[in-house]
Every structure is written in structure tokens, then in C-alpha cells.
Amino acid sequence: MDPRADLTGIDTMRNIKLTLAYDGTAYAGWQVQPGHTTVQEVLEKAITKITGESLRVIASGRTDAGVHALGQVVGFRTETHLSADVLRRALNAELPHDVAVLEAVEANEAFHPIRDAVRKRYRYVIHDGPVRDVFRRRYCWQYPGRLDEAAMARAARALVGTHDFSSFETTGAERKDSIRTIYELRVERGRGEEGNLVTIEVEADGFLYNMVRAIVGTLVEVGRGAKDEAWVAGVLAAQDRRTAGPTAPPQGLFLVRVDYEETVD
Fold it and tell me: How many angstroms separate the Cα of 143 from the Cα of each of 200, 219, 252, 261, 264?
């Protein structure tokens, strides 16, 4: 089923909006794939067990294998008479422990998780301490060298605004174009006990395939001293993926939240 297909259907059906958190370590990404366990698969199985309905859920976007979510938004239509809150509690009782429904609400009939999204925010975490942190290995890129986060932050300024981000797009997903607007792109180092963590947060009106991980890999080239700060602006202008840095590994990436019209100031 096309993930962009309408959620509209029988008039008596209800439109449910879920907000999910999940640890993506054990999953081959969001989307159902034959022979692999995915987040979409385990969620749909839980819904079927509770409601008796065989249905397809639609997420705001697909996360890759190993990528996590703090606030993925999912929609589906159902004939169940269970209240949204009862549905949330029932789903959490059925889902594996690395997936949780944070919120379930009844959305209006026209709500669509993909079409109605106006902004998304991602976080990427890098650990660059002298000794690897064994307890964070599933939730960060353990980089073997100290990074200059201040240089990375200065270089990142070139990417804020509306641009063609072809240089930061991995082929594999069909899009109308590669133009996106980045509203905020922050690079910060933690303090105290978090001093070995560099966090990159980016908020945009949408993202291309692997765009965040390509941006991170490019900024790391600056942070490790292999490229100067002005190089990032040149990569953006080139509109050629081959000019950018490598794609950062998946485990450091988190989908933080998805904003819809009513949640944007």
C-alpha cells in the first residue's frame, strides 16, 4: 500500500493519531519488509490483536534500521469502539518493551500524518570521549577523536534557510524536488558529565532520504579538521552527493517530534 494513500474510507470509521517512542536497535527500520522485524509490523500486529482488524498504519515518515524515535506520529482508521486512551493502554500491554505509545487521540477525519506535517525535528548524538561508553553504544556515534564543535556550529550556518539539498540526499526515495527549508541547526557540546557528547539538532519543513545523517557526516569532516568551515557552503552549492561527507551511522539519530499546524507557534 502506498504510504501516501488517503486515510479516508468508510464514514463510520474513526481516525486515530498515535505518538510513538521506540528504540530502533532491534528493527530493520519503520516500514514492513518481508523477512525482517520492523516497527510498523509489531504495531500493526498489536492493533490487530486488540481490535480484530487487519489494517495498515501510516507514519509521518520512515526511519531506517537502527534509528530511534522520541515522537513518531502514526495514523490509522478503525471501527473499534475503544476510547483512544483505552486503546493506548491496550497497545502498550501488547507491544514489545522497546516500543511505546505515548499518546493516542481521535483526530479529525481529514488528518494525514504525512501530508499535514509542517515541521520535523531530529537529534543526532556523537560521543567523542577518549574511552568508548559501552552503555551509549546503541544511541550515539562513538567517534574516535575529539571534535571541534564550535567549528562545526559555524559551518552549519550555511545550511540554514531554503536551499536545494541534493548534496545531502542519498538516492532511494522518490521526491518532487530536493528543496527544503532548515529553520534551525544547532551543534552543542554537553557540560559536566555530558562533556563527551556533541549533539546536533535540526528542524526543517521536511527531510530528504538520509539528509540528517549526511549533514552530520559532513560537519564531522569539519570538526575533525579534515575540511575548513567554508567547505560546507561549497558542498551545498555543488548539489552533488559525492562532494559531501560520509553518511553518519544510524544509531545516533532520533526523530524528536513532528509538528502539525495546530502545534506550531
Answer: 14, 13, 11, 37, 35
| pLDDT tens digit sequence for 182-192 | 999 999 999 99
pLDDT given at position 173: 62
Give the rounded distance of the alpha carbon of 135 from its chain centre.
22
β-pair type (99-107, 68-78): unpaired
Give the β-pairing of 68-78 and 253-260.
Answer: parallel
Instruction: Please name the residues in contact with 151: beta carbons below 8 A apart, sequence gap of 6 or more.
Output: 222, 223, 229
- Do residues 77 and 13 touch, judged by C-beta distance below 8 A? yes
Residue 178 is given by DSSP the state: S
Distance between CA atoms of residues 168 and 218, nearest Å: 9
Each residue's pLDDT tens digit, 231-257: 999 999 999 999 999 999 999 999 999
CA proximity to 124, closest of 36, 220, 206, 53: 220
Active site residue 64: yes
Ordered structural domains, the chain, with CATH: 14-107 (3.30.70.580), 119-259 (3.30.70.660)
Catalytic residue among 23, 64, 116, 259: 64
